[in-house]
C-alpha cells in the first residue's frame, strides 16, 4: 500500500489492518504483550516499523486516516498517536487532535510513545503548557500520566520548576502508572535540578510509595553521584 497517497475510507482502512497483520513478528508480539501489561491485543510490530508507517501517513491524508474508526489493536492506537506527532498543521489544529487522542490512551506504552513524538510541544512550550497542566490535574489516570510525562519530557526548566513540584504533589490518583509517572518525573528533576529537588524530597505531600520509588530511581541513575545516592536514601519515608 502507498500510505502517502492513500485516500482513507472504511474499505481501505480494513485493507490496511490486514497488511499490518501480514507484517507480524510473533516473537516480538509475545515479548511486547508481557511488557505492556494491559488487556489489549498486540499484532507484533516493532517501533521503527510503526514509526515509518506513521511518517508516510502523515505526509498524505492524515486527517482522513484519523477519522476512521479504530479497532482493537495496540498498533492502531500507537499509529494514530504517531501520525498526530508527525502531521504538519497549525498548532491549534494539532492541539485539538492531542486532546481528542488522550481519550484513546489506555496503557502506558501508547501514552509514552505518543509523548515522545510530540516535537511540536518542544517548539511551542508556552502555547501547550495550559493544556499539559490541565491534563496533569485531571482525574483520569492516563491523562494524568500524559501530563506528568510531558512535563518531564519538555518542561524541566527553571521557569516551570515550582509549578511542576506543585502539580506533582497535588496528584491524588493512586493508580500504579500514575505513581510511576510521578516517581519518574521527580527522579528526572533531581538529575537536572539537584538542589531544588532535594529540598522538595525533604518536604512534600507525596505518599510513601511514590517518594520511595522516586528515591529508588534516583539511586539507579548513572548520572547521580554515590554521595547523593546515599543522601537521598536517608529521605525515604
From TrEMBL:
Signal peptide: none
Alphabetical list of CDD domains matching this protein: AlkD_like (cd06561)
Identification of the protein by name: DNA alkylation repair enzyme
Highest taxon listed in the record's lineage: Bacteria
UniProt-listed Pfam families: DNA_alkylation
Amino acid at each position: 500500500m502507498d500510505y502517502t497517497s492513500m485516500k482513507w475510507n472504511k474499505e481501505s482502512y480494513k485493507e490496511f489492518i490486514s497488511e499490518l497483520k501480514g507484517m507480524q513478528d510473533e516473537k516480538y508480539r509475545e515479548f511486547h504483550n508481557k511488557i505492556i501489561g494491559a488487556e489489549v491485543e498486540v499484532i507484533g510490530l516493532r517501533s521503527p516499523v510503526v514509526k515509518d508507517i506513521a511518517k508516510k501517513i502523515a505526509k498524505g491524508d492524515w486527517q482522513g486516516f484519523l477519522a476512521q474508526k479504530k479497532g482493537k489493536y495496540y498498533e492502531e492506537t500507537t499509529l494514530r498517536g504517531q501520525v498526530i506527532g508527525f502531521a504538519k498543521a497549525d498548532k491549534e489544529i494539532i492541539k485539538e487532535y492531542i486532546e481528542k487522542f488522550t481519550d484513546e490512551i489506555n496503557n502506558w506504552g501508547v501514552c509514552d510513545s505518543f509523548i515522545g513524538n510530540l516535537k511540536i510541544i518542544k517548539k511551542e512550550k508556552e502555547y501547550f503548557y495550559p493544556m499539559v497542566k490541565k491534563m496533569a490535574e485531571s482525574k483520569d489516570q492516563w491523562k494524568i500520566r500524559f501530563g506528568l510525562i510531558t512535563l518531564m519530557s519538555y518542561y524541566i526548566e527553571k521557569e516551570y520548576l515550582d509549578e511542576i513540584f506543585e502539580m506533582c504533589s497535588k496528584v491524588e490518583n493512586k493508580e500504579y502508572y500514575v505513581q510511576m509517572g510521578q516517581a519518574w518525573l521527580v527522579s528526572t528533576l533531581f538529575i537536572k535540578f539537584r538542589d531544588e529537588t532535594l529540598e522538595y524530597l525533604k518536604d512534600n505531600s507525596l505518599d510513601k510509595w511514590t517518594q520511595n520509588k522516586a528515591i529508588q530511581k534516583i539511586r539507579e541513575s548513572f548520572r547521580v553521584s554515590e554521595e547523593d545516592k546515599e543522601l537521598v536514601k536517608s529521605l525515604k519515608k
